Amino acid sequence: MRLSVPSIPLEILNTVGRAQEISLKAAIERVVNFLTPGNTTVLTGAGVSVDSGIRAYRGNDGRQRYWSRAYMGYQPIHRAWPNPTHYALAALMYTTFIKDIITQNVDGLHAKASSLSVEEEHPQILQLHGSLHNVHCQKYHFEPRARYQYRISVINPKWKQLADDLENSRIQLRTNPDGDIELPGIRFDDFQIPPCEMCLSEGVVETTMKPSVIFFGESISNPARDDSFARIEACDQLLVVGTTLATYSAFRLVKHALELNKPVLLLNHGPTRADKLAGVDKIEMHSGQVLHAVAELLTAGIGDEEVDRMLSSGIVTPVPPE
């Protein structure tokens, strides 16, 4: 069981980006002007969750190895709190400047910022690559991740103790955006993976459980693909935030918006797969520097307690060093 490790073509990495250097004030003004008409769809990536302590790249490896690392890494993901960027986007969606959000992230932080539990589905938030907060078997019997974590703990007391020891040690674990962590030097061959209980009740013993996210070699579901295209077609412009667009499922949405002659504004620090696409206007800057100020300007004077709560919320958690 291995997660996708997307990459950006070398011809893009080896060239200087087209974005001109601008001041923070100018970047804020450009995003404000872009969002003012409303009916904007926002496409986000791992970059928006970096300030929540979740690193912006994907992990890999086999099933038993993955589940041992994922078991240890889920608590930091589950405890992660939305940062000011998540809350800024939630406030802009609440006030209708943003129509909806398509996210490549599987951490559930956009839902948390919108006052939902991570297991709930928000009609305005499409999780393009699924969610870490649910698991399912090959027959698509679903189970909340928190309950599955408990079942793992029961049959793996040694690993439960190791998780508790790491928790109490205050060691900063390197948590990947897919929910697993690095465990150098730790054997995982004794780690047991609980089967699907519904399959067991049907007499099926050998079942494979996985987080409800897209793994290596898998494509996003047809409903998710169709939904993502429909959202692009229904919006007037597309704001892309915190993503290299290395995954084709996201990159093709930008291309689709351009094919429909919709304005595309890209806010990202570093090269992206769309840097050479004609029609993409890029701001080379970290989203956390820009979006909170944008939300404050656009919502000024509304006088809504929920907006005030969102814009006063958010925790910046440093990512553990490499």
From TrEMBL:
InterPro entries to which the protein is assigned, alphabetical: DHS-like_NAD/FAD-binding_dom, NAD-dep_sirtuin_deacylases, Sirtuin, Sirtuin_cat_small_dom_sf, Ssirtuin_cat_dom
Molecular-function GO terms, alphabetical: histone deacetylase activity, NAD-dependent; NAD+ binding
Ranges for domain Deacetylase sirtuin-type: 17-301
Main location, first listed in the record: mitochondrion
Localization annotation: Mitochondrion
Cellular-component GO terms for this entry: mitochondrion
Keywords: Mitochondrion, NAD, Transferase
SUPFAM superfamilies (UniProt xref): DHS-like NAD/FAD-binding domain
PANTHER family per UniProt: NAD-DEPENDENT PROTEIN DEACYLASE SIRTUIN-5, MITOCHONDRIAL-RELATED
Family: Belongs to the sirtuin family. Class I subfamily.
Name by which UniProt lists this protein: Deacetylase sirtuin-type domain-containing protein
Gene source species: Clathrus columnatus
